[in-house]
Amino acid sequence: MVQAIWNNTVIAESTETELVDGNHYFPPQSLKREFFVESDETSVCGWKGTANYYDVIVDGQTNQGAAWYYATPKEKVANLKDHVAFWKGVQVTG
After folding, report:
1. Which domain holds residue 51?
2. Which of 30, 54, 82, 94 has the smallest set of CB atoms within 10 Å of its CB?
3. What is the number of structural domains in the chain?
């Protein structure tokens, strides 16, 4: 089981993540949605496409843009569609 933990709270967990560039991408159904709020932030990866972000909110504390996903990834990484990866202090274990 791979878990994403922030502020001592499990915010996502799955036995089937996609590992790309050293990041675990969690399937969308593995997220505990109550901790995620859509962000307007985007960025572009030359080979994966445009990334969208979520702010992670736990116990009233916000970690802005701590999760990202590709709503329309490029064809060679189509398996990442809507899968979520983490950074900015979110611990991924397992």
Report:
1. 2-93
2. 94
3. 1
Distance in angstroms (rounded) separating the CA atoms of residues 74 and 76: 6
CATH number at residue 10: 2.170.150.40
Residue 6 pairs in a beta bridge with: 9
Give tens-digit pLDDT for 78-88: 999 999 999 99
pTM of the model: 0.95
Question: Which among 78, 69, 60 has a CA at the least distance from the CA of 42?
Answer: 69
**Residue 76: partners with Cβ closer than 8 Å, 6 or more residues away:** 47
pLDDT at 66: 98
Selection from 90, 49, 46 nearest residue 69 by Cα: 49
